[in-house]
Predict the structure.
Amino acid sequence: MVVLGVVLGLVATVVLPHVYAAQTTIRFSLGASSSGDDNADRTLTTQTVLITGRDVLQPVADSTGVPIDYLIKNTTATVVPNSEIIQIQVNHPDRASGIQLADAIAKRYLEIANNTGNQAQLQAQLDSAQRQLANPATPPDTVGDLQSQVGDLQNQIAAQATSSNIASIVAPAYSVTAPIFPDTLITLGIGALVGAAIAALVGSRMVRNWTRR
């Protein structure tokens, strides 16, 4: 009975739908002054909440067609103890799709964490001001203001380039080799326990029958 239970558990691991974990790793730079204290822990915890929240997941759901409720349920973000490393995991029955989702979530999070949207806006304003300066039709009395605007925008972009790049991808998205469901050892263990229980039940009935004889 025990052997039969183990065999049935092994069959279950093959027949049941498999779920795979896609993972990617992010480093959130805390800076020398804030690493290692309670504030750092709160900051990293806040980042994990942000990663698994709608601000990050909704655009990914919209672009991939995956329901937002599915992403919320199957996406986790975990801080590696005593580090600035955050591990993002997405569970999905298809390896390639899981990798795609994990990569999209990491990149969307970087856009928010590094505030690249604002930098793109500043760059667009700078390009517009420079085009006006290069245009011969630009009124001479506006050239001074435009030059001042260009200098100010360049300073803002330079400041963001040195200070806003606080999050980066350490390891690109990849799929974990073994499926997270079904777990082979757990399934075999359950099969063995069920087989043992059945064997014990059958054995007890056989003993009672022999005793009655």
Notes: The chain has a mean pLDDT of 79. Residues 129 and 149 are 7 Å apart (CA to CA). The helical segments are 2-15, 38-51, 54-64, 68-74, 95-113, 116-134, 140-163, 184-212.
